[in-house]
Design goal:
Helix 1 packs across helix 3 (41-53). A hairpin with a 3-residue loop joins strand 1 (57-60) and strand 2. The chain contains ten helices and ten strands. The chain has helices at residues 4-17, 30-37, 41-53, 80-87, 92-96, 100-105, 125-131, 164-167, 184-190, 210-216, and strands spanning 57-60, 64-67, 74-77, 112-122, 138-148, 157-163, 196-206, 224-233, 238-247, 251-254. With 262 residues, the protein is an alpha+beta fold.
Length: 262
Amino acid sequence: MAKAYERIADELRQSIRTGRLKPGDRLPAETKLAEQSGRSLPTVRDALRLLQAEGLIEKVHGRGNFVRRARTLVQRSNSRHQWEKDRAHQPEERRASTGATEHDTGLTVDDLVFRAAYREITADADIAESMGIAPGTELVERSYRTRYSAEHAPFSLVTSHLVRAMVAGNPDLLDATNEPWPGGTWNQLATVGIEIDRIEERVTARPPTAEEAEELDLPPGTAVVVLRKTSFDTEGRAVELSYITLPGDRTELLFTTHLERW
């Protein structure tokens, strides 16, 4: 037999799924729910915590509980890499008209809010091993955040590393004020004569840190997917290493593999 808080949650869940309570609607006050259900406040709060854990509602401090608005789905496909490479040599006007986020979401440039920050660091042991460089090598670390203008959380948390000596021939690649760069990293590297030949991606999942959960606005209990992407040039060198942290509640990874026929 369902517990009292589960029955309350069932009723609210049904109201959300049938549209009686719509995304953005505020739920009745906890005291009102207790009165309506004939149950105690702790029981009502248990029901609300359950719905919050399911991602159906969210609690806004000082305002109450609201039906959670569905976040924009990001479908990240491995076909995007050839699309990005092809785009790198297109005219600047065309490169500036769309980007990888638009490709993955179906949104337009005008729908998006973009932020970038650069800093210079030295490679630690993990980065050095991943890129096949000596520890202490000077790097350009780039952090990117892109969000839909109608939402407050970014689609992902991106940290990208370039070997400074490889890109220093074009000073514009060291300056974050030149972002968003039409054509992205593929075109940036092309300006210093680097052609990306292959992409290696390693995918893992884990619980988010407190900072990640807050920035990505994750429902309780939601995992993140971490994509470690290494780009290699035509000489076999690792020319970029990215760590992309994706929210598990609104990201789909699509892998299509074309096989040779017998």
